[in-house]
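In this supplementary section we document a worked example of the pipeline. Step one takes a protein sequence of length 348 as its only input; no multiple sequence alignment statistics are reported here. Step two produces a three-dimensional model, which step three serialises into structure tokens for compact storage. The input and output of this example are shown verbatim.
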Amino acid sequence: MQRSGQTSRFEGWVAVCDSIYVAGWAAAGSQGAPVRIKLNGREIAEVKPTVERPDVAATGRPALSGFVHVFEKPLAETDDLEVVFSDGTELDWACRRFACGKVATFPQPPTEFMGKVGDADPNKFHMVGAHVFRMIRDKAGARPTDRILDIGSGCGRVAVYLSNYLNGLGRYDGFDIDLAMVEWCKENITARDQKFQFHHAKLTNTYYTEAGADAATYKFPFSDSTFDMVFAASVFTHLVPNSAQQYANEIARVLKPGGRALLSFYVKNDEFRRERAQGQKHSLDFQYDHGDYSIVDEKHPELAIAFEEALLRSIFDKARLKIDTLSYGAWRKPGGWSFQDWVLVSKS
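The serialised model returned by step three reads:
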């Protein structure tokens, strides 16, 4: 995939572009500005900004300036893409490389499934999936030959991107507590690519399901030292501390020596409390304090959970996993790798 040259405008950026979608932000004065998407010289869409961007707002520009466009079919390496304002001026490009080249075609998951894992809007669904893939590749260093475990695989939001990255030596396993989504992935992803296997974990969770075993005693259905890479997006954010400790222990068990794990959390610490005391607002209000963790809903404690940073570090110390990076997310303030806080750990 190629892109045309651009002029410097600093009122918009193409932040992400791969063969499935393009996304960024565009502003004109006090409001978001529509952009035109051109493919091989022909305009294919006009896109209005509908995504809130707190990071852009922090620079004095309008918050509602984010845009995303999913292509009708995957782009080829030779396709030429332009993203321009209405006057024809092209946006600046912040991205330096694409997520992948040719993308295998998989059916789109049902709207209900996309909503369960984050957002029923297909554009935002793909945007998050591609972003998590990039973190796995660029932040955690996943290689095409890796054996990868996806904890909370959902309806394959990240798997479809990995399908175009893993080569003949790479393998993927994912497990989820939602049986219907696991079966959908088997029928629509595994049937097309046998490198990808999905497993059902029959566990109870106050937010997702009431039937099943306790996550605090769950043993992952894999042998010791199986995986080069483990990732979990929005999983530990729904686990109480004893369950989180068990998952960390199991990650350490199934990782190969030298293996890495990329995991998302909500983290509270003294800096968080100083921000609150100074009147800074956060995207989530964990108002119910339980000592070393806080929740947003007493009736459904696993709806969203924030751990004290001291507890987070203790969990990985006990699991004998080394924290290499802790990136604080945009739910607190602009910056970081993503909306949630992300932890990169390794097994020595």
